[in-house]
Amino acid sequence: MLTENLTEAERQYYYMEQCRQWVEKQVKELGRPLTASVVTFGCQMNARDSEKLTGILEKIGYEMIDSENADFVIYNTCTVRENANLRVYGRLGQMKQIKKKNPSMLIALCGCMMQEPEVVEKLKKSYRHVDLIFGTHNIFKFAELIYRRLTENQMVIDIWKDTEQIVEDLPNDRKYAFKTGVNIMYGCNNFCSYCIVPYVRGRERSRQPEDIIREIENAVADGVVEVMLLGQNVNSYGKNLETPVSFAELLRRICRIPGLLRIRFMTSHPKDLSDELIQVMAEEPKICRHLHLPLQSGSTKILQKMNRKYTKEDYLLLVDKLRAACPDISLTTDIIVGFPGETEEDFLETMDVVRKVGYDSAYTFIYSKRTGTPAAVMENQVSEAEVKDRFNRLLEEVQTIASRVCSRHEGTVQEVLVEEINRQDKRLVTGRLSNNTVVHFEGDVSMIGKLIPVRLTSCKNFYYMGEPENFTKN
Ligand code: 5AD
Ligand code: SF4
Q1: Record-annotated residues binding [4Fe-4S] cluster 1 (predicted)?
Q2: Is 80 in the pocket of ligand 2 (CB under 6 A)?
Q3: Which numbered atom of ligand 2 lies nearest the CA of 201?
Q4: Ligand 1, closest atom to CA 373?
Q5: Which of 1, 187, 450, 458 has the greatest number of beta carbons closer than 10 A?
Q6: pTM here?
Q7: CB distance 330 to ligand 2 below 6 Å
Q8: Contact at 8 Å (CB) between 305 and 373?
Q9: What is the DSSP letter of 146?
Q10: Average confidence (pLDDT) over 216-235
Q11: Residue 473's pLDDT is what?
C-alpha cells in the first residue's frame, strides 16, 4: 500500500493494522496473549506520553501488564538529573538476563534520555539487546517503528533533533477514567542554565485551541471530570500561534466546557505569570486552588546565574498578588540546592522564601550537572558535603512548614474528587481537594470520579482523614 497521500495519523493507523496482524499471528502460534509493559520515568509529560504509547500498543493487540516480564517492554526515560539515567542503565542490565530466557522479547527505549547523542552511542555499543530507540519528537510514529523492527529484524533507531509537527487524533489510553492530562504545548524556550529540557524537548510549540478543546470535550463525553493541562511553561502558551491566544484565554474557553468539573495545569514559570491569569484563577471556580510555581532558588544572584529572569522580590510580590486574588490557594514549588556558586548566604535566602511563602509542599533537588548546559562548566561547583547538609536542612524546614500549612482547613467541609479505593484499607476511599491535598474517608466504589462534600476531621501532616457530610451509618 502507498502511504504517501495519507495524513500522518492515517499512515500510523495503517502501520497499527500491519502490526496487529503480526500480533494476531503470534497469539495463534503461541496459544496465549502477547503482553506489553510501559515503564515511565520522570514528569507528567512523560506519563502522558506513556498513555499514548499504551493506546497504540492496545490497538495493535497487546495485553498491557504491570511487569517487566512481558513480551514487549518500553522504557519511557527521563534525563533531567543524572540519577534518572543511571536507573535506566541499571534496569537494562537486568533485562539482558531476562531476554536471554525469552529471545523473542522486544525492548524499546524512548523519551528525553534518547535525545542525547552520547546515550544512543552507548546503547549501540553496550546494550545490543535493545530493539528499538526513538525520541521525544516522534512518539506518534511508534507503530511504524515497531513495524520496521519486525520487518528489518535489527535494532531500529529513529531520533529527530527537533520538529514543528504536532500529530492529532492518535489512540491513547487513560490511566484513570475520570481524569486525564492534556498537552497544550510541547518544548521549552527558556534555557535555564542548569536544565537539559530545552535540548531534549526542543522549541516551544502550542497546540491549536480548537484541538485542545475538542480533545477535552471528547474526554468529558467518556466520563472525564478533571483535566491537567500540561506544558513545560504553560504561561507562554499560544504566543507563537498564527492567531495568538493567551493561556488565560484558553483557560476561560476550557471552563465553558459543560460537564468538566476541575481544571489543573503545570508548570508555570514565575516570569510569565500574567495578571490576566491571576484574574481568571480568581473568577473561575473550576480552576483548582493550587499553583505549582517553581522557585529554584531564593537568591537573586543565583537566580540570575540560573537564567530565571526574576528576582527574589519579584517572586515574593507575585505570591502576594496570588494570595490577594485567591486567599485559599495552595502553593507548591521546586527548589535546587547546590547550584554552582551557591554560598551559605544564598542558601539562607532560599530558606527565607520557603518560610515567607509557606508552601504546601516542595520538591527539593540536589543540583545535578548535565553535560551541554551552561551551568555544567560554571566555576565553584559546591562540595558534596555542603550540598547534603543544606539539602537536609531545607527538607526539614519544608516538611515542618508543610504539615502546619496543610492543617489550615481542618474542621471545614470541602469537596473531594474521589480517585480510588484506599490501597491499605478497603473500607476507605482516597481523593483530592481542589488544592490537591489527599483525603481518605469511609466510602465505596460508587463514589469514584464524583465530587463528595467531606468534613476534614484531622490532618496527618500532609493528608486528611475525613467524614462525608450527610453520611448516615446503618
Ligand atoms: N539538577 C537538579 N534539578 C534539576 N531540575 C531541572 N534540572 C535540574 C538539574 N540539572 C529540577 C528543577 C525543575 C524540576 C522539574 O527539576 O527544579 O523545576
Ligand atoms: Fe527547564 Fe527552565 Fe524550561 Fe523548566 S522552564 S523546562 S527548568 S529550561
Answers
A1: 43, 78, 112
A2: no
A3: 6
A4: 10
A5: 187
A6: 0.92
A7: no
A8: no
A9: H
A10: 96
A11: 45
